[in-house]
C-alpha cells in the first residue's frame, strides 16, 4: 500500500497551473467533465507518476482553505530552489532551521488559494526512516 497523490481544489485553474509550473510540476493530463469541472494531474520531474491533482469545480465557488495544514516537497538544495522560485516570480519565505543546525532546512510557500507548501532539504543523513529516525 502507498499514497499515490493528493488533490487540492482550486479557484482559478489557469492561475494555479501557472503557480505549480513555477514550482516545477509537469502537467500529465486534464480530465474534463460535462459540467465544466476538471481534474489536472501533475508530477515533479523526478517522480515516476502523478503526485498532485488539481480539482477545478467553478460551480462550487472560491476555495476556502480550512482544516488543511500543508504538504511538503523534498528539494536537493533549498538555496537553489529559492533562487529558482524567485526567478519564476514566486515568493517563498526565508530559509529556516526548525530542527537546529543539524536538522532540515525549510521554507514556506503559499499557492494562489492559500495552501501552504513546505520545502524541505534534509540534512546529510537523509529523511527520517524507520532505520534513520
List the helices and strands and how they pair.
Blueprint: E1 6-10, H1 13-23, E2 26-32, E3 38-43, E4 52-56, E5 71-74, H2 78-87, E6 105-110, E7 116-121
Parallel strand pairs: 1-4, 5-7
Antiparallel strand pairs: 2-3, 3-4, 6-7
InterPro entries: Glyas_Bleomycin-R_OHBP_Dase (IPR029068), Glyas_Fos-R_dOase_dom (IPR004360), VOC_core (IPR037523)
Pfam family, one: Glyoxalase
GO molecular function: lyase activity
Care to describe what's here?
The protein is of the alpha/beta class. The protein has two domains: 1-58, 2,3-Dihydroxybiphenyl 1,2-Dioxygenase, domain 1 (Roll), CATH 3.10.180; 69-126, 2,3-Dihydroxybiphenyl 1,2-Dioxygenase, domain 1 (Roll). The protein has helices spanning 13-23, 78-87, and strands at 6-10, 26-32, 38-43, 52-56, 71-74, 105-110, 116-121. A hairpin with a 5-residue loop joins strand 2 (26-32) and strand 3 (38-43). The longest helix has 11 residues, at 13-23. InterPro entries: Glyas_Bleomycin-R_OHBP_Dase, Glyas_Fos-R_dOase_dom, VOC_core.
According to CATH, the homologous superfamily of the largest domain is 2,3-Dihydroxybiphenyl 1,2-Dioxygenase, domain 1
Return the domain count.
Answer: 2
Portion in beta strands? 25-35%
Distance between the termini: 21 Å
Radius of gyration: 16 Å
Total beta-strand segments: 7
Structure at a glance:
By secondary structure, the protein is an alpha/beta fold. The protein contains two helices and seven strands; from the N terminus they run βαββββαββ. The model has no long low-confidence stretch (mean pLDDT 92).
